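User: Reviewer 2 asked us to show a designed sequence for the structure in our supplementary figure. I'm pasting the structure tokens here. Could you produce the per-position amino acids so we can include them in the response letter?
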């Protein structure tokens, strides 16, 4: 059990639910015009299965990454960071393959229940769309490193992380509640996507030498470590700016800007990355950036709920 828990990489899980939290709390704080009250748009069944489905996708991605990199030999003695399950031999490739299949099935069942609770027997085309989206998400989680055409080995990992853990996670879950799209939510959705890509980019910066040797052509391998740092600055700073613009557009009160607290660890992280000269030393920053993203999503959500509370009090 210990080895399976390690293979699931628990430190990545808070990051994966960041978009779900923001999208869900946005639905509670800013109900759509065709819905009478916030409690009619938000419900705990949707929230619970959204979290469960996202966690399933993240664990699936981690299992598939362990399997794909392990079978390709990318996880070897040159790799920096904790040893993976297949690399160290504590889990066999056959067992990991079975785990990938089981996790895929369970995640898909969770996604189906989520879609049912969101749309019921109505909105049939919405249901079909989200079922297809769920299948694409499962396929993407697996194909990141598995197979001869794994997109993570061709530099497309950043794009898929941005789409699924940023846009789909935040905008998608909000649509399940509201059945509408509020384009202002696009700003925090992009921000969560950028920060999620930042974690991946940080991982790839750490592993640049071993990835280059193994033929894993990540964006960092393609552009080099120096430019990857500039790319990293762009991701983190843009995310902070976008969330700030969102707060301004949503007319946050002064006391709703407590989410700025999360900017301090993000700025500290940027300073650490700028001073770094040894990729190995970036490993602890992965957890810090993931937790900082989670903190930002929680604080921003609380700020939006404060807005909702103000409406209730004033009414």
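Assistant: Here is a per-position design you can include in the supplement:
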């Amino acid at each position: 059990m210990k080895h399976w828990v390690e293979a699931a990489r628990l430190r990545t899980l808070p990051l994966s639910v960041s978009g779900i939290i923001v999208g869900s709390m946005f639905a509670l704080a800013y109900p759509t015009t065709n819905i009478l009250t916030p409690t009619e748009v938000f419900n705990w069944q949707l929230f619970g299965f959204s979290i469960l489905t996202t966690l399933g996708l993240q664990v699936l991605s981690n299992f598939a990454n362990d399997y794909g990199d392990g079978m390709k030999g990318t996880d070897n003695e040159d790799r920096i960071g904790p040893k993976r399950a297949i690399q160290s031999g504590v889990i066999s490739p056959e067992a990991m393959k079975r785990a990938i299949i089981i996790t895929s099935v369970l995640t898909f069942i969770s996604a189906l229940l989520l879609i049912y609770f969101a749309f019921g027997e109505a909105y049939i085309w919405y249901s079909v769309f989200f079922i297809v989206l769920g299948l694409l998400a499962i396929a993407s989680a697996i194909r990141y490193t598995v197979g001869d055409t794994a997109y993570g080995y061709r530099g497309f990992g950043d794009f898929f992380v941005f789409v699924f853990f940023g846009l789909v996670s935040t905008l998608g879950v909000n649509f399940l509640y509201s059945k509408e799209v509020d384009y202002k939510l696009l700003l925090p959705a992009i921000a969560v996507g950028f920060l999620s890509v930042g974690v991946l980019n940080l991982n790839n910066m750490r592993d640049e030498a071993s990835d280059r040797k193994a033929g894993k052509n990540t964006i960092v391998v393609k552009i080099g470590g120096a430019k990857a740092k500039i790319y990293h600055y762009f991701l983190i700073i843009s995310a902070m700016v976008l969330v700030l613009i969102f707060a301004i557009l949503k007319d946050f009160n002064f006391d709703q800007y407590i989410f700025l607290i999360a900017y301090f660890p993000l700025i500290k992280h940027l300073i650490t990355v700028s001073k770094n000269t040894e990729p190995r030393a970036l490993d602890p920053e992965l957890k810090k950036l993931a937790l900082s993203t989670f903190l930002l999503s929680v604080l921003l959500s609380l700020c939006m709920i404060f807005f909702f509370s103000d409406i209730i009090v004033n009414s």
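For the response letter, you might also mention the following. Confidence is low (pLDDT under 50) at residues 308-315. The CA atoms of residues 120 and 305 lie 27 Å apart.
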